[in-house]
Amino acid sequence: MRAFVCFASAVAIVSASAAYAVAPNVSNVRAYQRMIGSRLVDVYYDVSDPDSSLLYVSLSISNNAGASWSIAPRAVSGAVGVNVTPGAGKHIVWNAGADVPGVYGTQYKAMVTASDANVAAEMIYIPAGSFLMGNNGAEPYSYSDELPQHSVYLSGYWIGKYEVTRGEYRRFMAATGRAAPAYWDAVQDWGTGSFTQTEDHPVVGVTWYDAEAYCAWAGGHLPTEAQWEKAARWTGSYPNVYPWGNVWDAEKYNNWDDTNPAAGGYGRCQTAPVGSYPSGASPYGCQDMVGNVWEWVADWCCGYYSVSPSTDPQGPSSGIYRGLRGCGWANSGSGDRCAGRSGDYPYSYGGWLGYGFRLAR
In 3D, which of 277, 309, 305 has the Cα closest to residue 291? Predict the structure, then answer.
């Protein structure tokens, strides 16, 4: 059986996170096909970092001797992704036959990148592939900026299982000296009585700039609208209206009408600790994709769908408002859908609604 991929050499790239004085150093990258005809490729590397014990490591593949790095492997295991510790002889196994079946060549190279992870966030991998984005016109509500529904191909990526918490954001403030956001005091009263925000409650009252700065510090970025929506609703063959399915259920997310004591019960103006509604998880397992807090995304808002590129769309090149997805605790009803879009000035913190976000890598 002929070899479907060959590696000529490997490249080490160093990526630093702004909060750390010394960037991680990747060296001695080697990649080998196990045997002629094998689907598996072993990638070895060394990585050191004197001031971080957890790293985010990614693998990229070039099929043209390093002129471009267009293959983002998803069938990988081993010392890759989040929470990789520094050390020598780190090992990644790539199932190249699953990602690039039937491909033959001698110009393949592997590139390993590392950045300071800072936050040991629980992340979910969303594999590369196409999904249907937007509203098909048959959902309980249909707004013009959700149309037309269109097919989008996304490279593989990681996204936070949960919204960024107060505990995680506190570490960011301590490391960078960034000021506390609005509504930072633990005890809050938003109109229906006081409640206490724990370290597991989502951080609220952040601007788009705050969210973007945190994500850069944490070795990632805000998800694009497309990344957020795929993680929220794609089943593998069709998009759910809501993360859990196509029938609205007040008890599956933090909203005005649910009775979950984690959010104070019915008619309460407050957030809940992240992950308090496990039955409302998305098909990929992401929690709180609707309700709890509105979440900033990377894109300028809104429009765009009719001219959106079909591969890895990044949103409009400019705008007035930055995108928000997912609705919050004050919302309720069958309009709280994954296709719903909103936006606000990037310097806004959401007033008493208190905007939040989640991390992507």
Answer: 277
Are 82 and 117 in contact by the 8 Å Cβ rule? The answer is: yes
Q: Is the preceding peptide bond at 215 cis, omega within 30 degrees of 0?
A: no
Task: For residue 208, give the amino acid letter.
Answer: W
Token code pair at residue 279: 């039955």
Mind listing the pLDDT tens digit for each residue in 185-231?
999 999 999 999 999 999 999 999 999 999 988 888 999 999 999 99
Residues in Cβ contact with 102 at an 8 Å cutoff, skipping those fewer than 6 apart: 4
d(CA 152, CA 150): 6
d(CA 154, CA 126): 9
- Mean pLDDT over 148-165 rounds to 94
Rounded Cα distance between 166 and 160, Å, is: 14
What pLDDT shows up at residue 115? 72
Range 23-26 contact pairs with CB under 8 angstroms and sequence separation of 24 or more: 23/49, 23/115, 23/116, 24/48, 24/49, 24/52, 24/55, 24/86, 24/114, 24/115, 24/116, 25/49, 26/112, 26/113, 26/114
Q: Give Cα 26 distance to the centre of its chain.
A: 24
Number of Cβ within a 10 Å radius of residue 187: 8
Looking at per-residue pLDDT, the higher value among 107 and 322 belongs to 322
The number of residues in the chain equals: 361
Ranking 69-73, 79-83, 162-166, 349-353 by mean pLDDT, the lowest is 69-73
Looking at the predicted structure, is the pLDDT value of residue 6 above 60?
A: no
Cα distance between residue 173 and residue 179, in whole Å: 7
Query: Exposed, middle or buried by CB within 10 Å (0-12, 13-18, 19+), for 238?
Result: exposed
pLDDT surpasses 70 at 265: yes
Q: Which of 279, 287, 273, 283 is nearest to 326 (CA)?
A: 287
Q: What is the rounded distance in angstroms from the CA atom of residue 267 to the CA atom of residue 156? A: 39
Continuous segment of H or E residues that includes residue 229 = helix 225-233
Q: What is the sign, positive or negative, of the torsion defined by CA atoms of 345, 291, 210, 193?
A: positive
User: What's the DSSP call for residue 234?
Assistant: B
Q: What percent of the chain has pLDDT over 70?
A: 92
